[in-house]
Amino acid sequence: MTIRMASRRRAAALAATGASLALILTACADTGDGGDGGGGDGGGEAASFEIDCAPYEEFGDLEGTSVSVYTTIVEPESVTQTASYEPFEECTGVTVEYEASREMEAQLPVRVQAGNPPDIAILPQPGLLNTLVTQYDAVLPAPEQVEANVDEFWSEDWKEYGTVDGTFYAAPLGSNVKSYVWYSPSMFEEAGYEVPETWDDMMALTEEIAASGAIPWCAGVESGDATGWPGTDWIEDVVLRTAGPEVYDQWYTHEIPFNDPQIVDAFDTAGEILKNPDYVNGGLGGVDSIATAPWTDAGFPILEGSCWMHRAANFYQTQWPEGTEVAPDGDVYAFYLPSQSTDERPTLVAGEFIGAFTDRPEVQAFQTYLSSSDWANAKAAATPAGGWVSANNGLDPELLATEFDRLSAEILADPATVARFDASDLMPSEVGTGSFWAGITEWFASDASSQEVTDDIENSWPTN
Amino acid sequence: MSTTQPAVAPKAVPVPSSVADRSRKAKKALTSPWASTLAVVIAVIWTVPTFGLLVTSFRPELDIRRSGWWTVFGDAFAGEGVFSLRNYESALFDSSTNLIDYFVNSFVITLPAVFIPISVALLAAYAFAWIDFKGRDFLFVAVFALQIVPIQITLIPLLSAYVDTGINGTFWPIWLSHSMFALPLAIFLLHNFMKDIPASLVEAARVDGAGHVKIFFQVMLPLLTPAIAAFGIFQFLWVWNDLLVALVMGGTNTFPLTVRVAEMAGSRGGDWHVLSAGAFISMIVPLIVFLALQRYFVRGLLAGSVKG
């Protein structure tokens, strides 16, 4: 009896082994017709890009040295990121050791405390820079060459985001433009709708679409343990439009409380769209489905014609399924989320920053390269599939891969643009990556009122 | 224990019949229809999510995003082609680093991380069980008490120790950390198992002139095989599936499969449809190990932990 049992088990184990082997083999055999990666952002052919090597000569002979970089940018985006370092490596002979992890924001403080920091970290938000400087005293002030580059190529605002208590630490790297509404140009054309120029136009269009029996908007804020962040972007965009940039600055610096009437008002204005069952959630369900719809997929109903507009950042470009054409006459495109008037264009932006933990010459040389226009252009040239843009004013828009990226670059460079950094990235982490996210999710999931949500978030603001 | 049984007890009369009795009773209790139904229900509930994951891993990206895995059955009846190997393709080949490298790293990490704690724990357990020295019980309790230290709070101090000694960036930090975290439980289990070995055996060996070394290798080890195998599987699964230690203590050159699977969703989590395929690829090895050795697993764990 035991023997029979044992042999039957062995047979089961063998069968499992065989099945898994077969699985691998078939998967191998199937690659011929595969094509490239799923994200749409991959496949960066390292386009060789010529840069001027002179700025790095003052750092001495760097041949054979290496610089370690730690970042959140994993594959497939990392392919174009590393390709953009090649001109520097060719100039100087430095090897850049690239390490990416989605857990980087949690791991970096651990490594810093253990005395094992990377040479350079690409920080995805100023809040992390602030923590590293004020709590661990770990980031080194930017060398003068980097500061000179930033003064030349970046606006005062951007420099300010990389500054903590008056010391300039971190040069900005890439930029994101978040004030976009994605739509289907062909659907708009067939229905005879115009891209709205002002907020009132947009509300009128929303009303018109709803009157025709369709659901105009779709949204989704689910994002794993960061669920809620796409909703905070919505609110921030509306605060910029209803209360204005000055109030916005007072808001994230907590000069006015989080539950200030102007902020509650902005919640209500966003709620006119997001909490109106006639306006949301096209193709996905009711208002509460916003809390559970993955942000990565929330715009997909546009492709099926069950949703008309989806507010999402420029990097949503790479989320569309393979084969989706992003162009003014393609499957999807985006227009600037309009404000009250056309004269002033408040725009929500975000970006990454370069923090250095060591000051060896090769590290400083690399920092200098990353803050230069040469890097921005090399990165643009190395990103043939698009989905990347920078507010670096030395960036040549012609090098950007897609028309949409050029639109983003245009908005960033436009003098009428009043850029403000994503407030949740600037608020203390208890709020910016905690109660604000949770509050937004509550706002959708259990239909909490704007007043309740803002009161709760205000109460969670750290006291000192 | 057998030594405490009175020598006058009539041989071979009550013991086998009571054992047979008990096993018959146990069999009766366990094979009641209710128990069987319950077992089946539990098995189904536990298996459904895994099964859903398996089905999902074979569905095309858009289907995964648009509908649940259970809808495939309806679609299949409607005659639509709903399965594809595209996710496995992405998981296996869409990375610039070959997945084989991560597989190799997983093995390089796992084998020593299983071997080291078992070797050390065997020696320690023997000492705790059969060598009488001062403070033995106190030391044993102290070692087992370490089991309650959460590994998370040790991460930063350990990592800074590794950095100071200059072994950071190699496989040593990972091997050592896994060994440390495994030792308390390993010593406890193996100690209990060794204690159960009749003292008469050890005494007989000693009378025949065997020292500790000989007793350990020739008396203990053969009897301990199931316990060693059970703990080996346990530790193998733990280390193979570990992400935390590998991520914190490791570097680019030492990352195992779990780290790669965790990165598969992409910088902004947009490629999460690949995760199900990635999960199944990384599951293959532990599945083989478990299925091949599962009888040791159950037998050994019962032997070590529950005293009859």
- Count of discrete domains of chain B: 2
How many separate structural domains of chain A?
Answer: 2
**CATH domain class of the largest domain in chain A:** Alpha Beta
Q: End-to-end distance of chain B, in Å?
A: 9 Å
Radius of gyration of chain A: 24 Å
Give Rg of chain B in angstroms. Answer: 25 Å
How many individual β-strands of chain B? 0
Low-pLDDT parts of chain A are 1-47
Provide the CATH top-level class of the largest domain in chain B: Mainly Alpha
Helix content of chain B: over 70%
Q: Which term fits the overall shape of chain A?
A: globular
Q: Overall pLDDT of chain A, averaged?
A: 86
How many beta-strand runs of chain A? 11
CATH T-level fold name of the largest domain in chain B? MetI-like fold
Mean pLDDT of chain B: 84
- Helix content percent band of chain A: 40-55%
Based on the coordinates given, report the CATH architecture of the largest domain in chain B.
Orthogonal Bundle
The CATH architecture category of the largest domain in chain A equals 3-Layer(aba) Sandwich
Structural class of chain B: mainly alpha
Oligomer status: heterodimer
Query: In one word, what is the shape of chain B?
Result: flat
Structure characterization notes:
The complex is a heterodimer of chains A (464) and B (308). Chain A has 464 residues and is α/β, with parallel strands linked by helices. Chain A folds into two domains: 54-176 and 349-413, D-Maltodextrin-Binding Protein, domain 2; 180-336 and 428-459, Periplasmic binding protein-like II (D-Maltodextrin-Binding Protein, domain 2, 3-Layer(aba) Sandwich). Chain A has 20 helices and eleven strands. In chain A, the strands form three sheets. In chain A, strands 1, 2, 3, 6, 10 and 11 form a six-stranded mixed sheet that branches. In chain A, strands 8-7-9 form a three-stranded antiparallel sheet. The longest helix of chain A is centred in the first third of the chain and has 28 residues, at 2-29. Chain A is globular, with a radius of gyration of 24 Å. Chain A starts with a helix and ends in a 5-residue tail after the last helix. Mean pLDDT of chain A is 86; it is low at 1-47. Chain B contains 14 helices and no strands. Residues 1-15 of chain B have low confidence and may be disordered. With 308 residues, chain B is an all-alpha fold. The longest helix of chain B is centred in the middle third of the chain and has 32 residues, at 99-130. Chain B has two domains: 1-84, no CATH class; 89-305, MetI-like (MetI-like fold, Orthogonal Bundle). Classes of the chains: A alpha/beta (464), B mainly alpha (308). At the A-B interface, helix 1, helix 2, strand 2 and helix 4 of A face helix 3, helix 5, helix 8, helix 13 and helix 14 of B.
